[in-house]
Design a protein that fits this description.
2 copies of one chain form a homodimer. By secondary structure, chain A is of the alpha/beta class. Helices cover 48% and strands 11% of the residues of chain A. Chains A and B meet through helix 7, helix 8, helix 9, helix 10 and helix 11 of A and helix 7, helix 8, helix 9, helix 10 and helix 11 of B.
């Protein structure tokens, strides 16, 4: 596959990638860089990287694949600092949840003989940092690639094999399609999760304490993802704002209809909503995207 | 404790109660009734009840505790059919998620020398029916009792010990306080879960398929509770409609503010929302109401 892969940004995603590569042995050399020294210390201590370097420039020299897995707001400055050192003929990728805007940055950089192939592994947990990563994070999860039509097929093939080596399934789609789907499958649910917690917290102290105490009645399910990496999510909301706002508007319109059914005590309408929802959940479990164990198999 | 406990309605909650009682041996005799014959067949086959009866009247004769764990819309007809057969001095309880309205029904029944002590075990899974029940469902979970001030203290003590024998922690509060807390900790989250699934489903077939496929990005967390018992949830939304609508209105107001922060790409405001949310989640885990394992410990 690749002789040398360089990973810039070693949080949950970056560190899961080098853990997976170390495990499957498909890459000869993995070089890592993170601008937070304490992150590099952890990687060193746990012996997770073949070489830890102290500048992004050092990281990319001789790399056949450069993977930038920082929050999206760091993508441009990182790329700007390494662009002169990228190896001719190498592949450049990322792991961002929003693809809009990245192509514009790439164009501005005027890269010569570099294959830019955006990647988005749709996998993660609510935890952050190099200790949160694990080698099986991508197993049976999708990775979406959004190369433009001019990209060399053999390079798309190479990066596909790279993700597949970590157990991921690969899907190719356009930037527009990717950002639309993710706005509804991931970004909107995060907005809603933050918002229901915000609503719970906008009560007096006594009520707030009670909501925490009795959260097993449903609320707790919505609170898991609110501890996800704040910088990453701030970037996502800003970079995909138009589509997320479309999603919020659709959600609000549906909520008004739902409220009406509750206010009018419309049993028929309520049961109809429940019945349709059930099918959707069952399809998610069927597709292997969630466990069918009660309470997510919580212990 | 009690010599004879009679359970009417043997779904997830009812069947978890008799499984727990059978395990802890604290009750001499457990009698069960369900109006669905296939439910009684399952109970018989798995030998879960000391006596399965074929009418609710038969169930309550000689019972020291009668527990009605049917959806709320069946509470009145069930009680109407058994009221003449309740043993003098016995305790009557339920397991409903909304307490408003039950006291009115009780008053109408004009019961003589019966201690009515409403119970709500804040525990459950998204599954329904007698096969979904398990003896540890109530372990370390709260049960809220909402007796009125005239209720005999010794009876409140008895029913508290009953729930504690199954591992539950007991809290006493007013009907109003109970319904307000649950409207936010349980009922509103269910509305939101149904609504986000409704929003996902109001797309074309291709998009819907993609949302299922990539639901691991966040959406899947919201789909678990939408398969919960439809009749039960229809009853909850109808019986607690005023407080749930208050909750929806607060949620919508917060969502408009949130949308504004996204539209204005207000990093500071977004990071502030995330920071506050994080504290709330941490408090839930701290209170033992959820696991701290990544992805709820999903396998």
């Amino acid at each position: 596959m690749f002789e040398q892969v360089s990973i810039i940004g070693c949080g949950l995603i970056g560190s899961s990638i080098f853990r997976a590569l170390k495990k499957n042995g498909s890459v000869k050399k993995v070089i890592t860089f993170d601008n937070d020294k304490s992150v590099s210390e952890i990687i060193k201590k746990e012996n997770l990287s073949d070489k830890i370097v102290s500048t992004p420039e050092e990281a990319v020299r001789n790399a056949d694949l450069v993977l930038i897995s920082t929050p999206q707001s760091s993508f441009e400055p990182v790329l700007d600092s390494v662009k002169k050192y990228l190896k001719s003929g190498s592949i450049l990728t990322d792991t961002n949840s929003v693809k809009k805007g990245l192509d514009v940055i790439i164009k501005k950089m005027n890269l010569k003989n570099i294959s830019w192939i955006p990647s988005h592994p749709v996998a993660g947990t609510e935890q952050s940092g190099p200790r949160a990563g694990f080698s099986d994070l991508f197993r049976d999860r999708w990775t979406i690639l959004t190369p433009d039509s001019k990209t060399k097929h053999s390079d798309v093939k190479k990066i596909s094999v790279f993700w597949e080596s970590m157990g991921s399934k690969v899907k190719i789609m356009s930037v527009g399609e990717h950002d639309k789907i993710l706005s509804l499958s991931s970004h909107l649910p995060h907005v809603i999760a933050y918002n229901i917690v915000k609503t719970a917290m906008s009560n007096d102290e006594k009520t707030k304490k009670n909501l925490i105490k009795y959260s097993a009645g449903g609320l707790r399910d919505f609170t898991r993802i609110v501890v996800s990496n704040p910088t990453m999510w701030k970037d996502i909301f800003i970079n995909n704002s138009d589509l997320i706002i479309d999603g919020i508007n659709k959600f609000s319109k549906n909520l008004e209809e739902f409220k009406k059914a509750i206010a009018e005590k419309d049993s028929k309408k309520l049961l109809e909503i429940f019945e349709n929802s059930k099918e959707f959940r069952e399809a998610i479990v069927e597709a292997g995207q969630d466990t069918d164990k009660p309470n997510f198999g919580r212990k």
